Amino acid sequence: MSDRPNILFINTDQHTWDVISAYGNTHVKTPHIDRLHNNGISFMRSYSSDPVCAPARASWMTGRYTSEAGTPFNGGHLHEDIPDLGQILQQSDHRAIHCGKWHVDGRNVYDSFDVLYYGQQQIGAGGGEYYDAAMTHAVVDFLTTYDKTDPFYLQVWYVNPHDICEYGHNFETKEMPDAITRGMLTEKDLPPLPDNFNYDTRETVLHRVCRRIDECLIHWPILRAMKTWDELQWRTFIWHHHRFVEKVDGEIGLILTALEQSGLADNTAIIFSVDHGEAFGQHQMFQKFSLYEASIRVPFIVSSLGHNLNIPKGAYDHQHFVSGVDLLPTVCDYAGIEPPEQARGMSVRPLVEGRDVPWRDFGFVESNYWGRALLFDRYKYVCEYIPYGHEKDLLPPGPDPERIGLEQIFDLKNDPGETQNLAYDENKRALLIQCRQALLNFEAGLERRQITHERPTRQIGNWGQRIRAHWDAHPELEAMRIP
Amino acid sequence: MTSDHIHWTFQYDGRSQTPHFGNQLIEILNRDTAPASEKKYTVLPNYWKGYKGRGGGDPVRDLTIGEVVINRKREPSKNWCYDIQFLNTTSGENLHLDFYTADDDLRTLRDTWRVTATNGAGDKYRQFTCEGHITSQGITLVVNNTTLPIGHLENTHSITCNWTLFDVIPKLAHQLKSSGEQISLAILEDLEKVRTPVHIGYMEDSTLPLGDRTLKLSGFFVYGAGMLPSYWWLDQQKQVIIASTTFQTFVLTGDAA
Q: What is the pTM of this model?
């Protein structure tokens, strides 16, 4: 077994965790991602650190949670003194190479990585339709000319299926004919409406203000349009998401073929993951931004197309909670270097190789600066911190029991669709208290740092005031807080 | 020009787009006629914000992000020889496809082809060159002397390149419209990625005012595994004048009947 394998990290964007045919989804065909699972191990309890592009990517690159990294939103700013993976890999023999979408706010990719391709108009949120093919060209050209003297770490950050966002935004101002009205499909061709389309409205105030109420903070125009959609329109939307996934799966296929035919398969560890999911109708949501499973749960596969590396084939891990903060330590492990001491994540390599190592008892996810989720074996706990509505909000919230707002508990075993909030069930009171305490204890160990850059401070100020105002305008919410 | 006159499949005046999309689409269609052997399509971004290429002209008056030039001629062997150039200033790629097809309705891909992509984005990736081959054993690409097998087709299936749809759809238009049935085929997307099955069908007729005249259009859709729906609009001379994908609208530059 080589101790200096190449490392290839492929990501897709806004790809819901179970939209992979190898996982049993019959409404999508992903033969190339399937190949990664069939030649590797899928961690089925893998979660984004923070379900939106820039925060999740900052966690990948630093091994830090977003309340530590300074990147709680798109438009945050990674603290300058936190090293990223490209910088860290300079201690190793691995050449650190980036291709595709970057979106780690506050960090210039060119300062840390050799950049194969980043777009003439630098890749922002969407445009997978033309960027992804160019990325594949760049990577295939690289792999077929690589001289194999030093190992490489290559991260290929595809845009699709994120184009589903723009597809949705397209219909903010015009009617969306469903695919049957267009004459394209019959009803049986469309995936079904999710079982959890209807939801328990006892959600956090944060989620309501961000994603539910009129003039909500995030993408209100498209949410307003979607409130008028009928079942067929939703199902057409879901159908489109799956086609975007298939589109990028084809790109991945070409890369894998090039890897194999270039003689690199035996000595390349492949990691596949996603920054966050896409709700596509679950809880009547679209995009990410929430703490529901469709938004935060992501694929995480470690694979090898060869046989020299100690990576199982077609395996599943349903036990260990994996987070986006684990990418950096995992890459460091394969590269033969230590991760920074402050990195919160852990290398999954021992788990891949079947070694028994201490592991976290729960998963931790942040969202929209004030939102928190803990994932336990069976239950999921969601809560929010109530903003001050002034400059004290510039220190990321937590751990502060006095500021915990509304809460949710879901039984993921009996209610995987998260349709019933059990937080108000007296029988779950002890569980809720335990979850709260686990959150507070965990956050006590985080190095939260004041947000100082102009753009995120402005957003925190604006959002904090809006959320605070909603609390003040709806006194009945105070009564919903659980003592 | 208002959005009311534009079919939803190529109406992108909303969000992040100035009202100029519709005006520019009309202006492009009204430009001077291109030479008969060549079809030129101006590429407009369906989402202007963030996707406009650097140096691509006035961001307010000109949304153009690229151009497609389609040249094809019939060889003495009766095969068609295609030469496609696709420049996209957002991605920075200039794609050149050189290939042959049979003279059948589906423009079945023949023998060998060549793909060259150059990257104007200034990063380490500069050029990609690939030769492709199709035989009874399957489809292969050769990149930097490395052979990449990319698929097999069943004997009953032929395969074509997506860029021949500019000819295939006009060929099939009458059949699709009169039968109401969809036709299925296999597509080798950009001569690199096998997409099958792909379906073509008739959608509806529409009209598009072009200043002092009105175009009568017939609309068709294309979709399939790994292929997002695209919408193809033919004029009364059965030429594709507008083709719209999720992110791009290809507008025939002049020569619309």
A: 0.95
Contact A246, A29 (CB under 8 A): yes
Q: How far apart are CA B66 and CA B247, in angstroms?
A: 12
Find how far residue A349's CA is from the centre of its chain. Answer: 20
CB A139, CB A99: distance < 8 Å: yes
Question: Does residue A28 sit in helix, strand or coil?
Answer: coil
3-state DSSP percent of chain A in helix, strand and coil, to 5 = 40, 15, 45
Please say whether the beta carbons of A396 and A449 come within 8 A: yes
Judge whether B252 is closer than 8 Å to chain A, CB to CB: no
Q: A358-382 pLDDT, tens per residue?
A: 999 999 999 999 999 999 999 999 9
Q: What share of chain B is helix, strand, coil (3-state, %, to 5)?
A: 15, 50, 40
C-alpha to C-alpha distance for B5 and B213, rounded to whole angstroms: 13
Measured CA to CA, the distance from residue B13 to residue B15 in angstroms comes to: 7
* Residue B230 forms contact with A (CB below 8 Å): no
Average pLDDT over residues B100-122: 94
Q: Which residues on neighbouring strands pair with residue B205, listed in sequence order?
A: B218
- Which residues in chain B (51-110) have CB-CB distances under 8 A to chain A? 51-54, 88-93
- Residue A438: C-alpha distances to residues A59, A65, A362, A406 (Å): 21, 16, 9, 16
φ/ψ of residue A365, rounded to 5? -135, 140
Q: How many distinct helices (H) and strands (E) make up chain B?
A: 2, 15
Secondary structure (3-state) at B74: strand
- The torsion angles phi and psi of A122, rounded to 5 degrees, stand at -55, 135
Compute CA distances B239 → A71, A154, A258, B242, B254, whole Å.
Answer: 50, 44, 38, 9, 12
- The whole-angstrom separation of Cα A324 and Cα A273 is 9
Q: In angstroms, rounded to a whole number, what is the distance separating the alpha carbons of residues A10 and A20?
A: 15
Provide the residue type at B237 as one letter.
Answer: Q
**What does the alpha-carbon distance between residue B90 and residue B54 come to, in Å, rounded to a whole number?**
7
- How far is B76 from chain A, CA to nearest CA, in Å? 34
CA dist A87 and A111 (Å) reads 8
Please compute the mean of the pLDDT values over residues A393-413 and round it to a whole number: 97
